[in-house]
Amino acid sequence: MKNTFGDSISITLFGESHGTAIGAVLDGVAPGIKVDDDFIKKQLSLRRPQGVISTSRREEDKYTIVSGVLDGFTCGTPICIMIENSDVQSADYNCLKDLPRPSHADFTAREKYHGFENAAGGGHFSGRITAAIVAAAAIILPALNRKGIYIGTHIKKIANLTDRDFCDYKEDIISLSDKSFAVLDPDLEDDMNKVILSAAKDGDSVGGVLETAVYGMPSGIGEPWFDTAEGKLAHALFSIPAVKAIEFGTGFGFADLRGSEANDVFTVKDGRIITETNNNGGILGGITSGMPILLRCAVKPTPTIGKPQKTVDMKTLSEQQIVAAGRHDPCIVHRARVVIDSITAITISDMLAMRFGTDWLA
Amino acid sequence: MKNTFGDSISITLFGESHGTAIGAVLDGVAPGIKVDDDFIKKQLSLRRPQGVISTSRREEDKYTIVSGVLDGFTCGTPICIMIENSDVQSADYNCLKDLPRPSHADFTAREKYHGFENAAGGGHFSGRITAAIVAAAAIILPALNRKGIYIGTHIKKIANLTDRDFCDYKEDIISLSDKSFAVLDPDLEDDMNKVILSAAKDGDSVGGVLETAVYGMPSGIGEPWFDTAEGKLAHALFSIPAVKAIEFGTGFGFADLRGSEANDVFTVKDGRIITETNNNGGILGGITSGMPILLRCAVKPTPTIGKPQKTVDMKTLSEQQIVAAGRHDPCIVHRARVVIDSITAITISDMLAMRFGTDWLA
Amino acid sequence: MKNTFGDSISITLFGESHGTAIGAVLDGVAPGIKVDDDFIKKQLSLRRPQGVISTSRREEDKYTIVSGVLDGFTCGTPICIMIENSDVQSADYNCLKDLPRPSHADFTAREKYHGFENAAGGGHFSGRITAAIVAAAAIILPALNRKGIYIGTHIKKIANLTDRDFCDYKEDIISLSDKSFAVLDPDLEDDMNKVILSAAKDGDSVGGVLETAVYGMPSGIGEPWFDTAEGKLAHALFSIPAVKAIEFGTGFGFADLRGSEANDVFTVKDGRIITETNNNGGILGGITSGMPILLRCAVKPTPTIGKPQKTVDMKTLSEQQIVAAGRHDPCIVHRARVVIDSITAITISDMLAMRFGTDWLA
Amino acid sequence: MKNTFGDSISITLFGESHGTAIGAVLDGVAPGIKVDDDFIKKQLSLRRPQGVISTSRREEDKYTIVSGVLDGFTCGTPICIMIENSDVQSADYNCLKDLPRPSHADFTAREKYHGFENAAGGGHFSGRITAAIVAAAAIILPALNRKGIYIGTHIKKIANLTDRDFCDYKEDIISLSDKSFAVLDPDLEDDMNKVILSAAKDGDSVGGVLETAVYGMPSGIGEPWFDTAEGKLAHALFSIPAVKAIEFGTGFGFADLRGSEANDVFTVKDGRIITETNNNGGILGGITSGMPILLRCAVKPTPTIGKPQKTVDMKTLSEQQIVAAGRHDPCIVHRARVVIDSITAITISDMLAMRFGTDWLA
Prior knowledge:
Four copies of one chain form a homotetramer.
Chain A: E1 4-5, E2 10-15, E3 21-27, H1 37-47, E4 63-67, E5 69-70, E6 73-74, E7 79-84, H2 106-113, H3 130-146, E8 150-158, E9 161-162, H4 169-176, H5 188-201, E10 208-215, H6 229-237, E11 243-248, H7 259-262, E12 266-269, E13 272-275, E14 283-284, E15 287-288, E16 293-299, E17 309-312, E18 319-322, H8 333-356
Antiparallel strand pairs in A: 1-2, 2-3, 3-7, 4-7, 5-6, 8-9, 8-10, 10-16, 11-16, 12-13, 14-15, 17-18
């Protein structure tokens, strides 16, 4: 299946940026989970363009739960969430439709869909689709919390500015939950914003690294081959349009270590076997160890920039210049964070449901 | 499904390191593909421990094609390949079976399988299982070549030694194909071996980074969400026991770039739209662009080392010391390379078969 | 995945009978297929309660194509079709919600969803959900026709009245396409309606048998094990709430034949190998032979009847009587026919896309 | 995936009738299930040609458990079971290889695999492959029994001879378990054998109907759409080469009933809600009700017969006569019974594991 992911709990995405609506069908969720509309709204607000560094489309994401929820509780049947597209400006689009924007999906969409794609605003490739993921996951996240599982993501790096590591995982994760600019070291927010605004002033954009922790993850989840915990998470997370790299635990840092430095030795704490370090990011042999899952995603700089760029007319093959029309956002790293939390929540819920059955989350 | 991967072309793995045999069932392969036994043997030899830096188990991987191949051609039906385990020494294993080796899967296997796992030698988690992947992929790889698709992996980094980038992709890939120690810069082999041997002398091990290119990949392959080209490849590649990070194109390097530096602008070459740079590693919006796919995997240092390490008895919860019994390999980076090629070959063949139908590869 | 079906072309269903809306996400459809709104409307009208024998809910199924279609052509991206529930009367429902209706899903829904299900009007189990299937398939069916593939279903049997067999498949299928009461022998319509009305007068209902033919199906489609053409079709068709039996070709009739009578011997016609008879219903060894696919579905009598029936209060376990509230339909056989056509269309399109690639249907 | 079935517990089949071996990989089985070799052997013997009415290949199915079982218990990892082909006579095959046997898969295999198929003895389509299914299921069946779930199949009908219905389900199922000719009414065995022998004397074959019951099935298993209990079971069961029809409960008999006769009214027994009748065969709305699952499969007459039959040379398109070479079996109905039990066991185990988690069966 194509725009669908998951085995026991699955999500199917639909919609285009400038179409009628976008949405998701979330299936396999246990019946009886309380749906918290305020939480869904809060999560959606974290994904929306905001603050001084966001100049782009700011429509409120008015969602409708079309099915699968009754009297504030999940029914167990497929949950369809729709978000209408109200703030659409595609008037100017037609004159650009044969000019693929560099590092966007315009060109590959054309190669795949032969010109029938609804390309305005990025179409089905738009980051806007992630709003549906965020809304869907916001139904599951509080249930995970009730099971003692907490998920949080912070901006690990923008340019040469690096946030501190997770320290007390649970406390740190909770501290991040309401921040619109999620750094663990509060002093960094200003500096990072300056870097972003400086890029914006130049009509340019910046990327970054996001770091995610899952605290309270049960051990024994995942499979030795293919459906490893890393593989499932990476599969889902690479959907995020700007994510181009994922590492678990020490990740690429392993290349600089010897085994004696890299190995996580076992010890006992509170009657439970843990590891002294967590270089493996909570996953050994593809299976969760009970240590916090730790992963980092690299987010490429927003491809839409104010500067003119070279491109090629896909019909005439003539070289052209393109300038991004209208608004654009010089940084999406701070907003991608809630999308990563959301995809992580759905993916681990699916793995937990496979392991413990469909009612486990309720 | 658990130890199975793929939609149109799928692979199912079975076997334990010290069991009767390991193997794979490769299904969905087009009928009529010539099977080249010499090539299978060569590929298996690249995966086997070898040279001065490998001291571990060196049995020849005698494979049997149990089904799906007749008179040297694929039948179209499931291909089962089995490799017997001949060189098994599990006599000493029992006294260690409650002592999980740091950074191995022993502990998580216990959490998942409750002590019923066949743990000797790593059991179903053993890197040995990758031999079955290599043999299965060796049936597909020549067919990909005939379609103009070439896959190659080189050792990008061990310790602080870094190999040169791919330059002429096709030529470089072909030059790598027979190397037992795959570096593009031949001068590096000695230096890297010295680093490995120095670690070995200390009873230690090293990790590294492998870089893979797929040349000649058709454009338009992959899906916008979930079944992105990155997501599918990462899902499969994270099966390799030591791989803990994957990046595409510029990957984590994107965090240091501005959009104007990171964007791959379009141009025309030989009547075809290409990008001037390839920071996106041949994939835009989850879909292949026709540029070479470029990815890098981080391989953690072999967890088995000669030095004594702390661990915990899983039955008594008492802290213990463990010393790796017998032989072990201070570096598997050079051997992992053929496994990455193999998993990449199977994964892109599956994506191509989904796109162009089951007979396309023949 | 649960409420999702298909490998290359997939359909995901959502919605409850008395909820906001019902709908489907159809993914994997080739880009560039012309969408014919009149045809969608016609197909939906064939599914709707109609004529003298239908007294139940008659709302027009106003559908919205939320995504995946632009300027009248499929985009290649997921197509979400929604149908609002306008004519909902669930006021009286609450007093009945602990009294499961015999042969409905009320009891099993309770066992599965623990009382959180949206049960009014059958909820997610309602036959109303099939409207979404019909609308989705109506996008695909004309494309199949353009490929020379025609699908048609007639009422083979109601009570002791039996329609004639398919004769000239293509002609017969086309003749059925606009009939609201699909019998090949036009004289039967009156007699069958009399049987239905007689049951209705008694506050009772009738079942029947529907026979489906797929003409022009390419040969070589399906797999030897599990994903056989029969298995895939049956898997999908058993979703239809009232379908309790499926047979291919001679089906249960094989039990009365000897091999020499049952075997379909080969002959040549117009330079093509065909079989003289079609007892195997166009499928041999799970794979299509190029002969018309022939299958029959048994439809149980509508469980909702006017007569009082015994049931049990699910909370108190006391025995109770239940009488169907409001309107109900004494026969759904004639309406199920377009649902069978629709599910068959989606399923064979999926099998064809797996075989020939995702663009084949366009 | 093609020759693979199941979501949480899956089975992958490989092998050809006259190849090296046939086998299955059974994945997702809970760790710690006792493996009973005597039971596996007994089940395999029930599938083997036997008695006066079987003249065909009688090799003992010597199986090897290649992986996934240690010290007599399942490990939780993939279980590969192989059965060697020892009694192979394909010498004469070549002269027939362009002459498709009527009602066999020879012709459709050629259409799909273009002549590369290993066609001798039916190749991958051979009923012999079912031996691997039987062996795999024999690992699971005793675990189901320990959970109070019993599966049994009897010969419901051969020619005009009809066995009695299930009466005391559990007792009847147990009574069937060791019978090589499984009829509930012991007086029928002789009569049915006479019918079969009479066909054999004429160089002909017979089909029949098999009826299966699953007693003790928990309620609430299955999904409303697509992954209905009926759909999953039918999908899997249609793999059996000769099965051409499946009905649940009253099945095709529903066409002759009115709703008031067909509906299963609810009542209470031993504090549990049950239905007074079981016309729905233990499944309502696709979900198990806790009543016994009841299904019937039609088995077509063995296509291999002693009489000469018309066929067509696939290369020259000339009409030819074909006579079955060597041995053949005039009836496989009595042997198919253990295959149906086996596929049913694997399928319901998968559904139970999806619902209750992977450890439930242990």
